Model the fold of this input.
Amino acid sequence: MPYAVAYAPSMTLREMMETYGRDVWNYAYFLTGSREQANDISQEVFLKAHRNIAKYRGSATLKTWLLTITRNSAFSWRRNSFWHRFIPLGKRHTPGQAGSAEKEALSKQYVNRIWELIMELPDKHREVLVLEIQQGLSTAEMAALLGVAEGTVKSRLSRAREKMRKALEEDER
Done:
């Protein structure tokens, strides 16, 4: 029996939140663009997960299972609201490592532009790119989370990267 399966049912709600809270909140924020909704969804996710931990089959990591609950909760929230746009991730503070205020501003501007370009990607391409960059999920974990084949994830990642490359090249002109 995999360690995650044996360990997950014995986790307390607090342990689950301490271990995966940041990942769940970040993903909820990415999907909603709202701190308030990310907070609400995160709480909902952990309560659902804790109530249903016995249903966790271990076919995916606990993190992937929690992110699946997060995704479903966020999509449910979106369906039940009139919200249909994302707030670009670039609006978040991203500290740079530049030596001067000018370099810091340019670095922050570049990071913001990259996130703007990511947010312009079609949903299916943006989602896999963010899951890879921000959540560090493997192709297999993304496939399990999204309910698609690994080949589909690879294809979406490839297309997302290609679109980003082209967009960045256009920006440089």
Observations:
- Residues 150-172 form the longest helix (23 residues).
- Residues 1-6, 82-98 have pLDDT under 50 and may be disordered.
